Amino acid sequence: MQQALLDHLKIITEEEQRILDGMAEVDKGIYTSGQDFIVDSAKMLQEGKLIAVRTHTRFVHFPSHRHNFIEVLYVCEGAVTNIIGDKKVVIRKGELLFLNQFTRHEILPAGKDDIVINFMVLPEFFDVAYTMAGNNNVLADFLVNVLRQDQERGEYLHFRVAEVLQIQNLLENMIYSLVTGKGDQNRINQTTMGLIFLYLLDSVQYVEMRVPNQYENMIAMTTLDYIEQRYRNASLTELCEHLHLPMHVLSKMIKKNTGFNFKELLQRKRLNKAVELMCETDLPVSDVIAAVGYENGSYFHRVFRERYHMTPKAFREANRKNDKIRLK
Question: Which end of the chain has fewer CB atoms at under 10 Å, N or C?
Fold first, then answer.
């Protein structure tokens, strides 16, 4: 890592200075508004942002907590020790730890020379990476799991990739972009994360993971890949025939493992694709509706307004003036 960037990351923050001055505990008010210690994306990310970074707070034990976003820890210098469940997970220089939403963990005190970056990421940030990474691998399994909204299952991926220079360079570029505000574009950062995943796929021999119930993950992953490939005319009936599962069994499994039913997953994909077409092409809205698989234009307008709180035409006009598009 460039020395100038590392020196910037080593600067003692106001929170750390208060700790050094005698504040014995983490100030939870910085991270959450609730009684339960759930670090809140509304506190940590600016409105409209899909990702943000901060240096991990040193000199203090970070008590057991969860996040309502995905957290990625990257160690620039030194090391940091997480306690996940009853397991001690030590992340060293150049290594990555992906923590799923609501994974409970605590972090032992880090020293002055332990420089750790926290990437705070909303699930939709990974849409581009999922498309780039493909399926049938541990990362795709994890990306299925990040869709879960309300389960505490303790999933994590620990990549020991300090020697993979391509990953180190991409991470440094991403950190520089987010810390300095230069190149502040979601799409660029999403693509960079996708490239990181592609390199991580070649490094699975260095991964330690905890992703429970591989069979159900496989079914959920297959469902998402099916929707990704066939969203224009996908149907739950066809998927049931492909997987040789009764509809009520598959429906229950999809809901349990993604947090959404089949119709909601399909609608999410179609709306995301519609937004992409509206903001990156000049296709008439009627053609966009047909291209993403909706036969009823009135129904499309209704679900679009429910999701984005404006008409497709108004959304297109607003986001042509502003590149920061948030896919929900």
Answer: C
